[in-house]
UniProtKB/TrEMBL annotation, chain A:
BP GO annotations: transmembrane transport
Family according to the record: Belongs to the binding-protein-dependent transport system permease family.
UniProt cross-references to SUPFAM superfamilies, sorted A to Z: MetI-like
A Pfam family this chain is assigned to: BPD_transp_1
Species, as recorded: Conexibacter arvalis
Topology class, membrane: Multi-pass membrane protein
Phylogenetic classification of the source organism: Bacteria, Bacillati, Actinomycetota, Thermoleophilia, Solirubrobacterales
Keywords, ordered alphabetically: Cell membrane, Membrane, Transmembrane, Transmembrane helix, Transport
Example of a GO cellular component annotation carried by this entry: plasma membrane
Compartments (UniProt record): Cell membrane
Protein name in UniProt: Peptide/nickel transport system permease protein
TrEMBL record, chain B:
Domain ABC transmembrane type-1: residue ranges: 96-311
InterPro entries assigned: BPD_transp_1_N, MetI-like, MetI-like_sf
Protein name: Peptide/nickel transport system permease protein
Coiled-coil segments: none
Organism name: Conexibacter arvalis
Alphabetical list of Pfam families matching this protein: BPD_transp_1, BPD_transp_1_N
Principal place of residence: membrane
Family: Belongs to the binding-protein-dependent transport system permease family.
SUPFAM superfamilies: MetI-like
Length: 296, 322
């Protein structure tokens, strides 16, 4: 006769880590709304140019400098190009640059942080001093410099932004590795004869990724703002390719001297909404992924 | 305490050396070079390019070039501009006051607005004021400053005609004395407001958070319980302690404002350091670029140092082992 009643399996009580995190994320109403808005934006930017009748580069002198109407919800510019179509195709470029920059920065940060945290000692010291140096550089100035000297291309802009946003990830990952490498599961793996590289990549990395996800999400916001500033200064992609920042740059004269407010209003609004949503999602993710954090 | 200050100050030196090495190396690694536009334009030019190269010491080995430049920076000779032939330090010195005025005014404005808003929002947590100000500060952090600048220019300069659209002074009118000051202030209003906006939003969020932490503490309840006026509790007890982390963050916004001035100076046509930097980047004027980058880096390093020191001075719980 068995006296012990069967305990429900742990998974029924708590669910997996990701399901738990999703449950906590959903409590964050604003973050959920922001995620939805971002989804719509992404869909519009990717699918929009195919569905929309207007092409971003079609010149139509018959309908130039029109304020927003039903036919042109965001108005037209001095060449009669539909601003909505341009905002959508520009958004593709903006988001592509930001995503690529964040991925490159996260990869660099994880590699540097893992090496510094796991092996420690002299390597750690040297790498952390390099991080200090990068933190102390006037980043916007250096990005401007790199892009001007090397020439604006997708690769250059991504690399320049990534080169000054990886340090935070590196510090976070290093801290995780410092504590995780002392844990029993690492000892166990090592006693089974698992090599250092395999321990670093297969055993510790999955446990150290949580803070990376949060900092990468928030990093997208920084990357979008940096790219926009760069393009606004006229240092970004060359026409006819225009990111949102580039459209703002083109609109300067029209807005301040001719009063065509719609030329600048909509591209900037897109930047604002996107960055705002990314920040909300990042905040929600931080609360959701850290079970220890108590509710405020 | 003195030992800590000296030690912490000395740590900044290797950091600055590291920064200078990295910046120098970066400029060398980029394709082209200061003479890129003069090269390959014919044989008679080749000799001339060689002459220029020798004159500026560009044919020396790189380590020699670095030590010549770094030694010069340390002794106050920052080289001469490739473009104007004038000393770099003089060129920066001419532009610096405009940038400092812009940065300083924006900094003071940001603090003057952010602290009361943050305190009030924390004092009345979950009130409509808290929701509105928190929402606005979220928007402020996400706001591209150049967009805000364009929209304000449209409203206040183009539509209403209340404020000038750029520059530092009205060139059509001859202002003297007091009216010159008024004229300058009118030109600074928009750039300062826009530059301060993002920092105000950041600081207000930070002040609110710090105040919320402090207001939960036992001594605040004790102070209230002993019948002190709410004002005394907030200002005399809570704010003084909340100020410790806030001051640190506030100091660190100064270099951010300095960097942000690049964009403001471009939109509002203000002849400052940021404009000089963008112009020099287009002309590949390496000595000027290096000079401005070093000033920017030094500002970041010094701001970090000051933040550390202020933190240790304000918080009596922190005592550095000497």
């Amino acid at each position: 006769m068995r006296l012990r009643t069967r305990k429900p399996p742990l998974t029924e009580l708590h669910g997996s880590l990701s399901r738990d995190a999703w449950r906590r994320f959903r409590r964050h109403t604003l973050a959920v709304v922001a995620l939805g808005v971002l989804g719509v934006l992404l869909l519009a930017v990717i699918v929009g140019p195919f569905v929309l009748d207007a092409e971003p580069e079609r010149i139509d002198f018959g309908s130039k400098n029109l304020p927003p109407t039903l036919a042109h919800p965001m108005g037209t510019d001095e060449l009669g190009r539909d601003q909505l179509a341009r905002v959508l195709s520009g958004g593709r470029l903006t988001l592509a640059v930001a995503t690529a920059a964040v991925l490159v920065a996260a990869l660099l940060g994880v590699v540097v942080g893992a090496i510094a945290g796991y092996w420690g000692g002299l390597i750690d010291n040297a790498l952390m001093r390099i991080v200090d140096v990068f933190y102390s550089l006037p980043s916007l100035f250096v990005v401007i410099l790199l892009v001007t000297l090397v020439g604006a291309s997708f690769g250059t802009i991504v690399a320049a932004i990534a080169a000054f946003t990886w340090m935070n990830t590196a510090r976070l990952v290093r801290a995780s590795y410092l504590s995780l490498k002392e844990r029993e599961f690492v000892d166990a793996a090592r006693s089974l004869g698992v090599g250092d590289v395999r321990i670093v990549v297969r055993h510790i990395l999955p446990n150290a990724l949580t803070p990376v996800i949060v900092s990468a999400t928030l990093g997208i916001a920084t990357a979008i703002l940096t790219e926009s500033a760069l393009s606004f200064l006229g240092l970004g992609f060359q026409p006819p390719h225009a990111t949102w920042g580039g459209m703002l740059n083109e609109s300067r004269d029209a807005v301040t001297n001719l009063g065509h407010w719609w030329r600048g209003f909509f591209p900037g609004l897109m930047i604002l909404v996107t960055v705002l949503c990314v920040n909300y999602v990042g905040d929600g993710a931080r609360d959701a992924l850290d079970p220890r954090k108590e509710e405020r | 305490m003195t030992t800590f200050l000296v030690k912490r100050g000395l740590q900044a030196i290797p950091l600055l050396i590291g920064i200078s090495l990295l910046l120098f190396a970066m400029l060398q690694m980029t394709p082209g070079g200061p003479l890129a536009s003069s090269e390959g334009t014919g044989a008679q030019n080749a000799a001339r390019v060689e002459q220029i190269r020798e004159h500026y010491g560009l044919d020396d080995p790189l380590p020699v070039q670095y030590f010549n430049w770094a030694g010069g920076v340390a002794t106050g000779d920052w080289g001469t501009s490739f473009n104007t032939g004038r000393p770099v330090l003089t060129m920066i010195w001419e532009r610096l006051p405009n940038t400092l005025l812009l940065t300083g005014a924006a900094f003071l404005l940001a603090i003057a607005i952010a602290v009361p808003i943050g305190v009030l929002a924390a004092r009345k947590q979950y009130s409509w004021f808290d929701y509105v100000s928190s929402g606005l500060s979220f928007v402020g952090v996400a706001m591209p400053s150049f967009w805000l600048a364009l929209m304000l220019l449209f409203v206040f300069s183009y539509s209403l005609g209340w404020l000038p659209s750029g520059g530092l002074e009205d060139l059509r009118a001859d202002h003297e004395g007091f009216s010159a000051v008024i004229d300058r202030v009118r030109h600074m209003i928009l750039p300062v407001i826009v530059l301060a906006a993002v920092s105000t939003a950041q600081l207000a969020r930070y002040v609110r958070g710090a105040m919320l932490d402090v207001l939960q503490q036992d001594y605040v309840r004790t102070a209230r319980g002993s019948g002190l006026r709410e004002r005394t509790v907030i200002v005399g007890h809570a704010l003084r302690n909340a100020a410790i982390p806030v001051v640190t963050v506030a100091v660190l916004t100064i270099p951010e404002l300095f960097l942000g001035s690049v964009v403001m100076e471009t939109i509002f046509a203000i002849p400052g350091i940021g404009r000089l930097f963008v112009e020099s980047a287009n002309l590949r004027d390496y000595p000027v670029l290096l000079g401005i980058l070093m000033i920017g880096a030094a500002l970041v390093v010094v701001a970090n140092l000051v933040a550390d020191i202020v933190y240790s001075l304000l918080d009596p719980r922190i005592r550095y082992a000497s």
